[in-house]
Structures are given as structure tokens and as C-alpha cells.
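Consortium newsletter contribution from the modelling node. Members have asked for a concrete example of what our holo predictions look like. Here is one, prepared for the magnesium ion complex that several groups have been discussing at recent meetings.
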Amino acid sequence: MRSAGRIVAEVHAHMATTVQAGVTTADLDALAEKIIRSYDAIPIFIGYPNAKDGGPPFPASLCTSINDELVHGIPSRRRVLKNGDLVSIDVGVLYKGFVGDSGWTYPVGQVNDEAQRLLAVTEDSLWAGLAQALAGNRFIDVSRAVQETVERAGFAVVREYTSHGVGRKMHEEPQILNFVPDRSEAARTYPAMNRKLAPGMTFALEPMVNAGSWRTQLQDDQWTVSTADGRLSAHFEHTIAITNGEAEVLTKL
Ligand code: MG
Ligand code: MG
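And here is the predicted structure:
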């Protein structure tokens, strides 16, 4: 998973220097696929099944989501980045049977104050969650740290999409909320939230944070998820491993 994670991080390092006004999201996708395949790794998003029956599988190596889009945006020649945009880039790689998964939101040129603050707070919330990802803590401790960081800043954590276990498959048990559900909801829907973290567990911690309401909507392409109110969203994700000390970030160079 470390090796898979390093390839994902390598892709992000290239994204960070390539994202600029005039570049299309299809350009980013082509570059990412080239890098991933150069390591004999597989871009795991291509062909990923749609959550909806009969929905189309995902057609690209990257998810590229612009401004009010938070996740699962489809790269396109027609989507040209412009100054002031936010673009969230999600990378998933399968290497020697193991998965690395990391998403990052990049500013295009100069972005406005709210966008800057949203980026800072969303990334902070990832690190706050990670700081609680300690053996002996419960999943809910991670969720709480993420949510508190976001809400203290006046933003909202997305609820319909979550963090998740990861390993040989991209999405493994458990589903990990980025917020604390009320007790009845938690017991009914998310029984794993009270489980304790233990060394060797690996998961993808990925707060998605909206400037306005937490509500989202699925676009007609059956993939792209946008904020319901049209306001900005940001997404920061690392694949991490629980150890006897601090969590190890696997999707870094
Ligand atoms: Mg991801
Ligand atoms: Mg993920």
C-alpha cells in the first residue's frame, strides 16, 4: 500500500505543477494515466461501477471536480480551467494488488478569499482527523475532529459521501463518517463507528466540505456530485495506516 500510495503522490506532485488556467481536465487525466501506467500500475477509477443500477461505469483515470462540484467529476476536453477556479483531483491506483487513494483541491491562479479559506479549513480538517487516528481511539473520534474543525470555521461537512476502509479494494468496510451522527442513526446505519482503531488498519480519510449547505445533488451524467446550493466545495484525502504511534500517511512522497 505504501508503494501504491507513492505512485498516487507522484501523480499529485505533477498535478500541482500542471494545474493552471487554459488546461483542460482531459489534459490532467491523460497526464495522470501516463504516469500511473509508467509504474505498471492500474488507474482504478476506469470502469468503476456506478452506484445506480444501469448507470454508466466511470470513464477516466481521474475524478476532476470544479468549483461547486465536490467529487466524481468526469474529465473533459470541454472543461477548461480558468483563473479563480477550484479543481478537486482524485487519484486512485492499484499496484501489485493494493490500492492508494488520495484527493486534493487545487486553486487555479488567484482564488477569492472564501475559496482560500475553504481550502485551508478542509485541509486542516483532514489533519485534525488524522491526529485522532490512533490505536485505541474510536472511529467516531476521527469523525468528531473533522466535523468540529469544519463547523468552527462556519462551513459544512458533506454527509452523503464518507471516508472508507481501503486495501485490496478501493472501498472496503467500514464506511467512516466525517461527522458525528445522532445515536439512533449511528446504531442503525453505521455500527462500525464505535469500533476501536487498531494497528494495521488502513483507510482513506477524506473530508468533503461545502461553503454553504452540506446538501449535494447528482448531475445528469450519473457521476458528478455538486453542492445543492451551487456554492463552492473542497475535498482533501489521504490513505493512512494505523500504527502504534501516529497514523502513517501512505499517499505521500
Ligand atoms: Mg479518492
Ligand atoms: Mg476515497
